[in-house]
């Protein structure tokens, strides 16, 4: 019996014993090395299905990881020390109830939740006090729940980095040229495969199930002028087909309470 036939027999035996579908049984038994072009085709098929989906829930995470070799900060002179003290006093007057350490933590570890409608090319994400809304090719940002106005149009909009935008990132994945399986993980109760992907010059990891892209993760150097670390960005999608008829597209979303 050839190795391939033996493997198929083992998969069918597992299916009979567990009731799992073929793809799940094959995954649990461990897949043999697969040619990159076949994995690329699978990735693009999952991307196309995701972009055609009517709706899904979305979570965005952005984590700043400081470099272990941070350059020393220059000690401020008398003027700098006075400016820092004045700024701290002003902050205490404006927002005495906000802890600076908590604010710093929220800045370096941002989390947003919301809804995406890939087929309609739009989404809403609320970060708790600040929100984004993308519609009709324009990105808006401002206080959560604020009415949508021209003055809260995000000047960056697209083309900002495609890796910063969930729909732009999915579009980028259509350009995948290399892909390989790297593991498996269950996300929101759904077994998924992790895939390392090269799309254009971007290297990222995505998680796919038997139909959709469920998570994307990318890491790149800190875009700030001091380049003091790296930025890890994660988009996670689940609950495909969730009802979204009640969403209000005339104002920025407010799905979570700030703080």
Could you give a short description of this structure?
The protein has six helices and ten strands; from the N terminus they run H-H-H-E-H-H-E-E-E-E-H-E-E-E-E-E. It is α+β, with helices and mostly antiparallel strands and 259 residues long. A ten-stranded antiparallel sheet has the order 5-4-3-2-1-10-9-8-7-6.
Molecular structure report:
This protein has about 260 residues and is α+β, with helices and mostly antiparallel strands. The chain has helices at about 5-20, 20-30, 35-50, 80-95, 100-110, 165-175, and strands at about 55-65, 110-115, 120-125, 130-135, 140-145, 175-185, 190-200, 200-210, 215-220, 230-240. Helix content is about 30%, strand content about 35%. α3 (about 35-50) packs antiparallel against α6. It is globular, with a radius of gyration of 22 Å. The mean pLDDT is about 80.
Task: Chart the SSEs and their pairings.
Layout: H1 3-18, H2 22-29, H3 36-51, E1 56-66, H4 78-94, H5 100-108, E2 109-117, E3 122-126, E4 130-135, E5 138-143, H6 166-173, E6 176-187, E7 190-199, E8 202-208, E9 213-221, E10 229-238
Antiparallel strand pairs: 1-2, 1-10, 2-3, 3-4, 4-5, 6-7, 7-8, 8-9, 9-10
Features:
alpha+beta
Query: What composes the largest sheet?
Result: 10 strands, antiparallel
Listing every helix as H and every strand as E from the N terminus to the C terminus, the arrangement reads: HHHEHHEEEEHEEEEE
- From the alpha carbons, calculate the radius of gyration and give it in angstroms: 22 Å
Proportion in helices? 25-40%
User: How are the strands of the biggest sheet laid out side by side?
Assistant: 5-4-3-2-1-10-9-8-7-6
Runs in which pLDDT lies below 50 for 5 or more consecutive residues are none
Number of helices: 6
What is the β-strand count? 10
> Beta-sheet strand percentage?
25-35%
Secondary-structure class: alpha+beta
Mean pLDDT: 80
The global form is globular
């Amino acid at each position: 019996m050839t190795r391939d036939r033996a493997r198929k027999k083992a998969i069918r035996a597992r299916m009979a014993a567990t009731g799992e579908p073929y793809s799940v049984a094959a995954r649990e038994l461990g897949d043999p090395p697969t040619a990159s072009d076949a994995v690329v085709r699978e990735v693009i098929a999952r991307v196309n299905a995701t972009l055609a989906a009517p709706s899904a829930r979305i979570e965005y995470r952005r984590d700043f990881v400081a470099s272990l070799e941070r350059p020393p900060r220059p000690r401020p002179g008398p003027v700098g020390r006075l400016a820092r003290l004045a700024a701290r006093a002003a902050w205490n007057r404006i927002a005495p109830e906000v802890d600076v350490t908590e604010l710093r933590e929220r800045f370096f570890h941002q989390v947003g939740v919301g809804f995406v409608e890939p087929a309609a090319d739009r989404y809403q994400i609320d970060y708790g006090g600040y929100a984004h809304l993308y519609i009709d090719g324009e990105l808006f940002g401002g206080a959560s729940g604020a009415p949508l106005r021209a003055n809260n149009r995000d000047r960056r909009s697209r083309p900002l980095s495609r890796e910063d935008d969930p729909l732009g990132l999915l579009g980028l994945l259509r350009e995948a040229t290399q892909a390989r399986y790297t593991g498996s993980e269950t996300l929101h109760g759904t077994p998924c495969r992790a895939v390392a992907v090269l799309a254009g010059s971007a290297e990222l990891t995505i998680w796919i199930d038997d139909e959709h892209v469920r998570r994307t993760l990318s890491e790149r150097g800190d875009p700030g002028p001091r380049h003091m670390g790296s930025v890890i960005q994660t988009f996670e999608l689940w609950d495909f087909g969730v009802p979204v008829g009640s969403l209000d597209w005339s104002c920025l979303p407010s799905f979570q309470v700030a703080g």
